[in-house]
Structures are given as structure tokens and as C-alpha cells.
């Protein structure tokens, strides 16, 4: 059975957005201060400290628009942060009791029947289960309540 890793947004993309690059809707990210403790950065995969600058933007974690390419809001640290390199469950996946996981093929299209609300502690187990299938290339983790993209899980080969 393969090992898994949690893949943060690419540093090049994050740097582009921080320096005025456009989001999935062709708009510059909004620059605001973090309110509360639950603003997850999709690059360092940690929570953005309250009162700290952050970017709010539309993100489509797919290479191009197509019917299965969901777009939604995400947060990023406004200041430079290091990309997640940990092997365990990232901190941003510790704020909810469960998450929506969906498996996708190499064509970036969802594989029907893979979408499931999974308790947080079972995320790695369900991802590994999906990776036993030849037609699954990656698993996206989304909020079970708001459907926001959190992180992509890939095979760590």
C-alpha cells in the first residue's frame, strides 16, 4: 500500500498571488487581517494568527476549467511562509471533526462513488483506501460544511 503526503499549494503560485497575480476569477486577492483562529493557509497548512495579514481569493485546484473543476475561496498568509513538508496530518485539518474527501483520476475528473464525509482521524485511512484503485491519481480534502478546498493528498512514492 502506498504512503501519502499532503501537498500544499505550489510556492510559485503563492508568490505570484502575493505579488499581485490574479486568482481563478481573474481578480487580485483581497488583503485583510485574519479574524479569529480558524483561517487556514493553503501553503504552510497552518492557521493564520489572528490580526495577521492574509489573502482571500478564489482558487481552482485544477489546471483548467471543466465541469468537475470546482472553484472556491481560500486563505493564504500575506507574508512569506514555508510550504508544508510534514508527514502527518497538517494542522489545518485539526479544526473540524470531519472533512469531505473525493478521489480524482489523471484527467482531473472526480471518480463517482469516492466522495465521503470522513472523521478527521480517518482521513489517512480513507485516502490510502482510495489509492488502492488504479483510477485514482489524487484525493482532495474539502470542508464538510462549506466545501472549501483545504489540501490535496497524493501518493508519496
How would you explain this protein's 3D organization?
The chain is mainly beta and 157 residues long. It has helices spanning 11-18, 123-130, and strands at residues 3-7, 30-33, 53-59, 72-77, 98-104, 116-119, 138-143, 149-156.
Keywords:
single chain, 157 residues, mainly beta, first zn-finger domain of poly(adp-ribose) polymerase-1, 2 domains, five-stranded antiparallel beta sheet, three-stranded antiparallel beta sheet, 2 helices, 10% helix
**Would you identify the regions where 5 or more consecutive residues have pLDDT less than 50?**
none
Strands of the widest sheet, in order across it, are: 1-8-7-5-6
Say how many strands there are: 8
Q: Give the overall average pLDDT.
A: 95
What structural class do you assign from the helix and strand content? Answer: mainly beta
Shape: globular
Number of domains: 2
Gap from first CA to last CA: 10 Å
- The percent of residues in helical segments reads 10-25%
The helix count comes to 2
The main sheet comes to: 5 strands, antiparallel
In percent terms, what proportion of residues is strand? 25-35%
Radius of gyration: 15 Å
InterPro entries: DUF1203
Protein name: DUF1203 domain-containing protein
Pfam family, one: DUF1203
In short:
It comes from Aureimonas endophytica. The chain has helices spanning about 10-20, 125-130, and strands spanning about 5, 30-35, 55-60, 70-75, 100-105, 115-120, 140-145, 150-155. It has about 160 residues and is mostly beta strands.
